[in-house]
């Protein structure tokens, strides 16, 4: 057997055994439990990278089909200025701006919809329809309307994030039971007091569900939108351009940056959810 492939098999068996041992441990120390919970996915990820490297080298797979992780890392380190410019254009300008606008507008409209049965019956079906529209169909129209710069990508992100936030918030505002609402009425609470003291706290899990969904949708929408027109900078622009030049290692470097940014973004939202909804059974049950 090829030396690289043999090493991959041995490394996989060793890390598999280590992870199996770790997940079966029941440490009394909370710090050790947190370290173990972090170590297991890290070891699994490192194992995948090592196996990927060994398989590419062992089978002599051409780099244009699948570059090795070491090749991608080298390209990433040597292209930091370019990758940073793309990240700033796509994530900091398009994704974050569109995410804040889309989620904010969706939340505000959800409050209005909750106050108006007409809007609830008329707008929500339209929201479900628009949510099903493919981004590849919306993006060219937004580029034509708002130009080739990041503003058109923001418009795409707003469309993709607005309706998930709207639908989830409306559902969340209806999560409080009739008994709880009747109790607020017996206290002579106003609509605003009932909203802030009862209905919004009950809706937070739904709202954060939309925020987590939108954290990935926003990044996907911005990158795909850049395929249809953008200045000579941006993650989507770089991916489409470098594929045409057969610089697959640069494509994978951009994918790695996008995956890392999206994971961190999702993680920040999840941490915020744990801080705000610490009282919810799903959060209390998952705490170590």
TrEMBL record:
Keyword vocabulary terms for this entry: Cell membrane, Membrane, Transmembrane, Transmembrane helix, Transport
Membrane association type: Multi-pass membrane protein
GO cellular component: plasma membrane
A GO biological process held by the record: transmembrane transport
Compartments, record wording: Cell membrane
Keyword Nucleotide-binding (UniProt): no
Membrane-crossing residue ranges in chain numbering: 6-23, 35-52, 91-113, 125-148, 154-176, 217-239, 251-272
Database matches in Gene3D superfamilies: MetI-like
Domain ABC transmembrane type-1: 104-276
Major localization listed first in the record, in broad terms: membrane
UniProt keyword annotation of Cell membrane present: yes
Pfam families linked to this entry: BPD_transp_1
Record-given protein name: ABC transporter permease
Organism expressing this protein natively: Rhizobium daejeonense
Organism ancestry: Bacteria, Pseudomonadati, Pseudomonadota, Alphaproteobacteria, Hyphomicrobiales
């Amino acid at each position: 057997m090829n030396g690289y492939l043999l090493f991959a098999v041995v490394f996989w068996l060793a890390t598999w055994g280590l992870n199996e041992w770790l997940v079966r441990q029941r440490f009394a120390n909370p710090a050790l439990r947190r370290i173990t919970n972090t170590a297991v996915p890290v070891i699994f990820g490192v194992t995948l990278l090592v196996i990927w490297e060994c398989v590419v080298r062992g089978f002599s797979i051409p780099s244009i089909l699948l570059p090795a992780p070491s090749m991608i890392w080298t390209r990433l380190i040597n292209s930091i200025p370019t990758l940073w410019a793309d990240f700033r254009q796509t994530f900091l300008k398009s994704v974050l701006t569109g995410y804040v606008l889309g989620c904010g507008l969706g939340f505000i409209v959800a409050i209005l919809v909750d106050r108006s049965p007409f809007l609830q019956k008329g707008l929500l079906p339209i929201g479900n329809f628009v949510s099903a529209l493919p981004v590849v169909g919306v993006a060219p129209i937004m580029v034509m309307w708002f130009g080739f710069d990041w503003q058109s990508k923001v418009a795409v992100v707003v469309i993709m994030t607005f309706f998930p936030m709207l639908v989830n918030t409306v559902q969340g505002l209806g999560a409080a039971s009739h008994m709880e609402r009747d109790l607020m009425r017996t206290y002579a609470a106003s609509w605003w007091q009932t909203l802030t003291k009862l209905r919004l706290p009950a809706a937070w899990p739904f709202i954060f569900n939309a925020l987590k969904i939108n954290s990935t949708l926003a990044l996907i929408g911005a990158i795909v939108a850049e395929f249809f027109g953008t200045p000579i900078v941006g993650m989507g622009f770089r991916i489409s351009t470098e594929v045409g030049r057969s610089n697959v290692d640069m494509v994978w470097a951009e994918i790695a940056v996008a995956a890392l940014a999206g994971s961190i973004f999702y993680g920040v939202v999840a941490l915020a959810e744990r801080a705000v909804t610490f009282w919810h059974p799903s959060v209390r049950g998952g705490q170590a």
